[in-house]
Amino acid sequence: MMKFIHKTASPPYFYRLSGLWIPWLGAITLLLLIAGLYGGLIAAPTDYQQGESYRIIYIHVPAAWMSLFIYMAMAAAGAIGLIWRIKLAETVAVCSAPIGAGFTLLALVTGSLWGKPMWGAWWVWDARLTAELLLLFLYLGVMSLYVAIPDKRVASRAVALLALVGMVNIPIIHYSVEWWNTLHQGPTVTKFDKPSIDMRMLLPLLIMAVAFKIYYVWALFLRVRVELLERERNTQWVKELLHQSKEA
Amino acid sequence: MTPARKKRIFLISIMVIGVAIATAFALKAFNENLMFFFSVTDVKAGKAPAGKDFRLGGMVVNGSFKRKEKSLAAYFDLTDNQSVITVYYNGILPDLFREGQGIVSKGRLRQDGIFEAEEVLAKHDENYMPPEVAESMKAKTTPAY
């Protein structure tokens, strides 16, 4: 088992494998996005209360889920990097941050666009919105800290620690709407109860969620490959790779 | 597992747990301030700051909405199914505002016990369904006479 992990996690092996996966991941993302957007924007019925405006849910909610999911993935990869000193895990943690920051920003912006017509305000300082904004700052902090330290292996460790400390914000974001009075609504799907959304509306939402997840893997692989080449530029396998591409 | 790794796992766990406990205490201490609004019962119990602006949240009581003729000034009752407070608001209400809707309003309590709002926000719930499903659910819950 450990042997398999070490083999898969070795930079040259991962570089080759991810190269094979990337076109497939991109194609699946595209197909799911088309299916999800068609289902959400065209096929799903209008809402009894919010009319057509609710359709921004198909971007807002999957983006918000991803902002939490990517943070947890980043912190987990960071912890693995800290404990086992696996280079690939360090790289995955570092490369997750910009993607997560993007999804967080997307969730905040779409939420703001949704809030104005429905609540009557672009922004309110309620617990959910404030905690999500804090998440964006955590991502930006991770990104800044990484570029601020020249030694990339030391930087990865610092970043992993920051990511782990920030983990405390994740349950706060999720439960903020239950622990405190907020203007933001309570959970519709992510609760133990039956989802309080019509099946025809829920299905495109789940498709979009899967599409965003696979997009993350795709974007992550692209970023990790570049980061690995840069970090390992003086190693034999990168030199061989360069040599091959020159010959071809 | 090597002793060095065990030690690192231990240190990381201690750090994460420590931060979690510290945050839990901090949030507990700031609990009141993290509430976006006071419920009607809270205000009736005198928990809201007197003579200061605060937010009041609740459901608009059915049949309580009254608007003065040729003006935006409106009175309506807010409830949390336990107590009721009358709200005065002079301004444009959000699209989702209607009787039976949850809202959050910002303003202050007048001497006569009426809440004078300077901002009204609509709070929608977590239910999403097509209009015909909402209709049939309504038909089920309210008995036909």
Present the secondary structure layout.
The complex is a heterodimer of chains A (248) and B (145).
Chain A: H1 2-8, H2 11-43, H3 57-84, H4 87-118, H5 127-148, H6 152-166, H7 169-179, H8 199-231, H9 236-247
Chain B: H1 3-29, H2 31-34, E1 38-39, H3 40-44, E2 54-60, E3 66-67, E4 73-79, E5 84-90, E6 102-109, E7 115-123, H4 131-141
Parallel strand pairs in B: 1-2, 5-7
Antiparallel strand pairs in B: 2-4, 2-6, 3-4, 4-5, 6-7
Short structural description:
Chain A has helices at residues 2-8, 11-43, 57-84, 87-118, 127-148, 152-166, 169-179, 199-231, 236-247. Chain A contains 9 helices and no strands. Chain B folds into 2 domains: 3-28; 37-123, Beta Barrel (OB fold (Dihydrolipoamide Acetyltransferase, E2P)), CATH 2.40.50.140.
Give structural notes:
The complex is a heterodimer of chains A (248) and B (145). Chain A is an all-alpha fold and 248 residues long. Chain A has one domain. Chain A contains nine helices and no strands. The model of chain A has no long low-confidence stretch (mean pLDDT 93). Chain B is of the alpha+beta class and 145 residues long. Chain B has two domains: 26 residues; 87 residues, Nucleic acid-binding proteins (OB fold (Dihydrolipoamide Acetyltransferase, E2P), Beta Barrel). Chain B contains four helices and seven strands. A five-stranded mixed beta barrel of chain B has the order 2-4-5-7-6. The longest helix of chain B has 27 residues. Chain B is elongated. The relative contact order of chain B is 0.13. The mean pLDDT of chain B is 86. At the A-B interface, helix 3 and helix 6 of A face helix 1, strand 1, strand 7 and helix 4 of B.
